[in-house]
Amino acid sequence: MKKQYTYPFTAIVGQEQMKLALVLNIVNPTLSGVLIRGEKGTAKSTAVRALADILPEINVIGGIPFNLDPDEELEVIRECFEVSGEAAPDGGELFVEKQKVRVVELPVGATEDRVVGTLDLEHALKAGEKRIEPGLLASAHRGILYVDEVNLLDDHVVDVLLDSAAMGVNTIEREGVSFAHPSRFTLVGTMNPEEGELRPQLLDRFGLCVHIEGITDAADRVQVMERRFAFEEDPEAFCRRWAGESERLVERIDRARKLCSSVDIGRENLTAIANYCLEVGVDGHRGDIIIMKTAKTLAAYEGRTRVEKEDIDRAAMLALPHRIRRQPLQDITMDVGTMLKNRACGKLSD
Amino acid sequence: MHSHLYPFSAVVGQEELKRALLINAVNPRIGGVVVRGEKGTAKSTIVRALGRLLPEARQESVVDRGDSQIVTLPLNATEDMVAGGIDFECTMRDGCRVFQPGLLAKAHRGVLYVDEVNLLDDHIVDIVLDAAASGENRVEREGISFSHPASFVLVGTMNPEEGELRPQLLDRFGLCVEVSAENNVEKRVELMLRREAFDEDREAFIASHRKETERIAAKIRAARELLPDIRMPSHLRGFISELCRENAVAGHRADLVIEQAARANAAYRGSRVVEIEDITSVASFALAHRRRDVQSPPPPQEPPRSREQRQRDEQSGKDREEEQPEPRNEPGEREEKKQDAREGGERQERSSESENGGRQPDEPSFPEQVFEIGSPFKVRPFNSPKDRAVRRGSGKRSRSRVSQKQGRYTKSTVRRKNNDIALDATLRAAAPFQKHRDNPDGMAVVLRDQDIREKIREKRLGNLLIFVVDASGSMGARGRMAASKGAVMSLLIDAYQKRDKLAMVSFRKDEAVVNLPVTSSVELAGKLLREMPVGGRTPFSAGLLKGYEIARTHLLKEPGARPIVILVTDGKANRAIGERKPLDEAYELSRKMGIEERIRFLVVDTEEPGLVNFGLARKIAGMLRAEYFKIDDLQADTLVNIVKDATL
């Protein structure tokens, strides 16, 4: 079979907000994901799939499909080996391999079994030992879990996602046999709002939210077509042409990752964030925390070690749209600026 | 995996929740806490941190639960996972039935935490609450009869927007706390700073709070020891019962809970005698979810002007309390209503202006209007009856057998399809043949393929609701449309909470229009409803037919679906599709459609009760073999109203 080429991330025309949100999540996985809202055919899926190219490498324990960190607790590691039907390395050296962070796709029609994993009960009954068939949540550990059309996901699958997103642990349980493995992932979802909204809790689990539209500039549209055509003509050459650009992005991400922990955010900036959230009216405190983290990550991405006012504005644009308090059946206002303006006017008129 | 938890003492604010949890930790007999409130308010953080504060009691627990004192109950939990089941490893090895304890046993002497408790299957909630109330878990199923102590602090969280808990279940939680985000900027900043410090160096952060954590833990330990000696003066018992009577509380549980909570509070203070402050400081937690509504809710057909006026007044009162001028900013159902009514009111003003200014030239007698949406209310439950078909999906409306590994295990079957093995039935099937089977591996029970039995499970699923809304001129009379829209809105909110699919048809003038094809987006339906104009004749049969067609097409796609057609009309048909008299045609169609077994109908009669009643909708409902409600009957009889502040 011919090698499959994915369209390079850097070659995507426009959609800067979306690209930024995705890159920030790679720099700092604790931002807990992106929700991309937009019409069809706006390179949503292309962008997410293209991420694979620019993702960094991590150390995982080889031999078992759980993407475990070599620093994971010994008990957990032992159990994971056991249920895979592999011999656990007794105190000996673990086989550690380097592996790119993975993008795992969760199909909309996925059953609960496929997502959570299954216990092979028949094997258990006949042979008297437990055997687990790990699900998507195991493969997505420390990686990106991508859900296309996340608003069409079945409710019980959403429940499972919420549970593991909240606890960082996925539990497979059947007939009193239970097995838990760590599952911390960056959730990336795309959706077309015309087909219905997300449930509030799931919405809240996405750290950032971007709204994208088709490009309106004619020259840019031409460029989109040209690049797409070039890619389809000769994917290999096209990818080679963009390799340098990708390389630079990978390096920049790598630098930002290292810088991230040393970024300083002043108290006055935190006050600004709190005021922002109070003025716009968001539920709970997750908005504040996400803005803080995003602003720090942004500063790191720009190569600075101090957060500036503009970082906070940009971070708020990414972190607030889906958190603004609204009535159950109201539309999501995507533009935080307008929202603020409206509220300011409202206050004056009262 | 839980070694680095955010410390309890480092949580900023949320004092009420902290106190409710602490007194529960002192005295688990209070019966747990349900936390109601918006997301992202440190609910889970506080509860998880509480586990760290509880006295070490591992040896007393039936099973080891690791180093954490807190057991989380996931939403997809099954009955055997919660209550316990057969330990198959022992069964297969030794051939005797061994009970394997479930989550309830794990939670003994600790905390059982249910996030989003309102989304949990009802039968699971029942099991949990039974155990919480009696301090014991009794298992009587699959041929096991076993009981073990299960005394734990039950903590549930819920977001009321996603649907309420049944009042019976709500009542069984001892205390109820409302949480909301901090409004103070300084505190919000403090919160972020702490979070940042925690993320940067977890161990150092936890260490810096260790002293405080240990102090609280010691206080809980001391209070637990003190608890049996706490004296309750009898005049204070009188005070408690007076409190409950004043607040029109349903049942006696509140009295008992307040007493237990007051004793725990006294013990936590280190006092041996309960004082009046102990009672007043905890009473609101116990009363919040048990207060009965004394006055009946205002009828929706009140003239809109006066209601708007009154709500404005209410609003200004509220503003003073909360210093938030925009109602958009306040959570809760009451605010929603206000907002709706306000927006609607404005719209009506506008539309009545346009009515006076520019009438439709071609239809002078039927002015078009867009009416406000009346106040939504809680809808009485309706569903379709159980049958033998097997479905899959999610939702919370009608019971059905399901082909997924969720729901209640009702019986077993020989048919293999799901790999959802029923252990008890499999063993029973294998038992008679054991003597004659070879046993090479030394297992106690030898199984063959033909022994395997699978489970049949049952759970609630969503339905397809098809709204057929009468938007003719007769509906516009004296605010009937506002009330009808309010009713439809209420049904929509109910549909959202029960995860139904919906479609919407409206009929007026000469035709019926499919406003919304089958979708699960309640938002869209709500938007369409808001913008739905009224005016013109009543082509009833056309509307009925359209709704029926949608149901039929959907049934072709999903033969197992159970569509419910909801007709919102006064039944005054005056426009026919064919040549016949409109009413006769409507009757004829209704009679024919009534024969279809798979489609259920529900008629919401919007006719205004008055001296002369035509009762046409009722007649049609009879022919359709439909459930029939007047708008006011559609409202659920709520015994208990959730209020934020009980009067003390």
Characterise this structure:
The complex is a heterodimer of chains A (350) and B (648). In chain A, 47% of the residues lie in helices and 15% in strands. By secondary structure, chain A is an alpha/beta fold. Chain A has two domains: 12-212, P-loop containing nucleotide triphosphate hydrolases (Rossmann fold, 3-Layer(aba) Sandwich); 261-342, Magnesium chelatase subunit I, C-Terminal domain (Helicase, Ruva Protein, domain 3, Orthogonal Bundle). Chain A has a five-stranded parallel β-sheet. Chain A has a two-stranded antiparallel ribbon with strand order 2-3. In chain A, strand 8 and strand 9 form a beta hairpin. In chain A, helix 1 runs parallel beside helix 2 and helix 9 packs across helix 10. The model of chain A is unreliable at 343-350 (pLDDT under 50). In chain B, the strands form six sheets. Chain B has a six-stranded mixed β-sheet with strand order 17-16-15-19-20-21, sandwiched between helices. Chain B has 648 residues and is α/β, with parallel strands linked by helices. In chain B, 40% of the residues lie in helices and 17% in strands. Chain B has four domains: 1-192, P-loop containing nucleotide triphosphate hydrolases (Rossmann fold, 3-Layer(aba) Sandwich), CATH 3.40.50; 223-292, Orthogonal Bundle (Helicase, Ruva Protein, domain 3), CATH 1.10.8.80; 304-383 and 463-634, 3-Layer(aba) Sandwich (Rossmann fold), CATH 3.40.50; 390-459, no CATH class. Chain B is built from 21 helices and 21 strands. Chains A and B meet through helix 4, helix 5, helix 7, strand 8 and strand 9 of A and strand 3, helix 4, helix 8, helix 15 and helix 17 of B.
Second-tier CATH architecture of the largest domain in chain A: 3-Layer(aba) Sandwich
User: Care to count the β-strands of chain A?
Assistant: 11
Please state the average pLDDT score of chain A. 81
Query: Structural class per helix/strand content of chain B?
Result: alpha/beta
Strand order of the largest sheet of chain B: 17-16-15-19-20-21
CATH superfamily of the largest domain in chain A: P-loop containing nucleotide triphosphate hydrolases
| Number of DSSP-assigned strands of chain B | 21
Fraction in helix of chain A: 40-55%
**CATH-derived architecture of the largest domain in chain B:** 3-Layer(aba) Sandwich
CATH-defined superfamily of the largest domain in chain B = von Willebrand factor, type A domain
Rg of chain B, please? 29 Å
SS summary, helix count of chain B = 21
Beta-strand proportion of chain B: 15-25%
